[in-house]
Design a protein that fits this description.
Blueprint (H helix, E strand, L loop, with lengths): L1 E6 L5 H14 E6 L9 H28 L1 H6 L4 H11 L20 H41 L21 E9 L3 H7 L13 E5 L3 E9 L3 H11 L2 E4 L4 H55 L5 E8 L4 H21 L4 H5 L8 E4 L8
Antiparallel strand pairs: 1-7, 1-8, 2-7, 3-5, 3-6, 4-5
Helix pairs in contact: 1-9, 2-5, 2-8, 4-8, 5-8
Length: 368
């Protein structure tokens, strides 16, 4: 997606028809209507161009940062924010290239420099709003992640979810004990587990399951010696537990986990709604800045009321072809002007500039 500004002085109906034909072949496009702004000195216009270039890049980077920061959430919820920006306008019967200057927010009666400051204020507000929401979201995510991690580690997880009760040795004399062994200490466990207590049954170590941090083993020991065995394990970094079938406790923790998952899901839904709103706001500010840049740049190049700004949304894989055809069209018009110059002196007086001013929207908007 991009905007161009073209000179329209002495622009004939035939030239407009050629331009329209090229545009229709490769894009959706709209002429941009500019309100009547106040006049400013030429030197101020050049200063504004530099400020607007930096502001344009800052707003684009802020929108990219938003997409990158919440990429995981957006993918999990099946939401494409850039597609939302396009489809949101389609639902209201508009194309993304339809533009109306928001005079209630950006009054054209302000000085041009004051308008630039107003854009900066909106950018700063959006930036602060995004920072606050990112911090809140990350803090909530950290709390949820820590809770889930504690619940899911093999050192603390309810054993009833991992082990069938009929496989547990549970007699008045011997019992099964379950030991969470850190991944880096597996070889140590296999070498020393029989020496951790005299009552450990030889060759009774049995691997059950593993996660990123631990491997869970079962071992058979004399029931009365469990506490000593547990303490000996702790000295080496192993975590030993007895099998306890507490269905009420398991149901309680399962309920808490589901509540947490529901709360996290709700938070993600609310977050996505906020992301859609702030993305719309950022995009509106961005397009206004680009249009304003095009206006100021056109004033310095073509003069007051001697240009037309057009917004293009190229079709799929047609961006480069559209730019090529536009350049070709305007270079042909330049050659027509030079051909009409009869003398070498007149030819030298025909200035050559790039055929039009272009302002690209540096976002990976979906193509259709």
């Amino acid at each position: 997606m991009f905007l161009i500004s073209i000179p329209i002085e002495n622009y004939t109906e035939a030239k407009w028809l050629k331009l329209r034909t090229v545009a229709l072949n490769f894009s959706i496009f709209s002429n941009v209507r500019i309100p009547k702004f106040r006049i400013a000195p030429q030197i101020e216009l050049y200063e504004l161009l530099e400020d607007l270039l930096q502001l344009d890049n800052s707003v684009e980077n802020l929108l990219r940062s938003l997409l990158c920061t919440f990429e995981g959430v957006l993918q999990a919820e099946g939401v494409d924010l850039l597609e939302h920006l396009v489809m949101h306008r389609h639902r209201f019967g508009e194309n993304i290239t339809n533009f109306t200057w928001n005079t209630s927010k950006y009054s054209p009666y302000l000085e041009l420099s004051d308008l630039c400051h107003l854009f900066y204020k909106y950018f700063r507000d959006l930036d602060q709003q995004m920072r606050n929401n990112v911090a809140t979201y990350k803090e909530n995510l950290k709390i949820a992640t820590e809770y889930i991690t504690v619940e899911e580690t093999l050192a603390t997880q309810n054993l009833t979810t991992l082990i069938r009760e009929e496989t547990v040795i549970d007699t008045p004399y011997i019992q099964s004990v379950y030991v969470a062994v850190p991944q880096q200490s597996v070889h140590t466990w296999l070498n020393v587990y029989e020496t951790l207590h005299d009552s450990v049954v030889s060759c009774s170590s049995c691997f059950i399951i593993e996660d990123n941090d631990y491997k869970l083993y079962s071992v058979a020991i004399v029931r009365d010696d469990f506490l000593e065995f547990r303490d000996n394990c702790a000295e080496i970094g192993f975590i030993a537990r007895e099998y306890q079938c507490d269905e009420d406790e398991f149901a309680k923790k399962l309920h808490e986990r589901r509540k947490l998952e529901e709360a996290t899901q709700y938070q993600n839904i609310m977050l996505v709604q906020w992301l859609k709103i702030i993305a719309d706001d950022m995009f509106e500010v961005l397009i206004h800045i680009k249009v304003f840049r095009a206006y100021i740049g056109s004033l310095t190049r073509f003069g007051q009321d001697k240009f037309q700004i057009i917004m293009f949304y190229p079709r799929r894989n047609a961006t480069q072809r559209l730019l090529f055809e536009l350049r070709k069209l305007f270079e042909e018009e330049y050659m027509e002007v030079t051909d009409q110059s009869d003398t070498e002196e007149e030819l030298e007086q025909v200035p050559y500039y790039p055929p039009f001013l272009i302002y690209k929207v540096g976002l990976a908007l979906p193509e259709y």
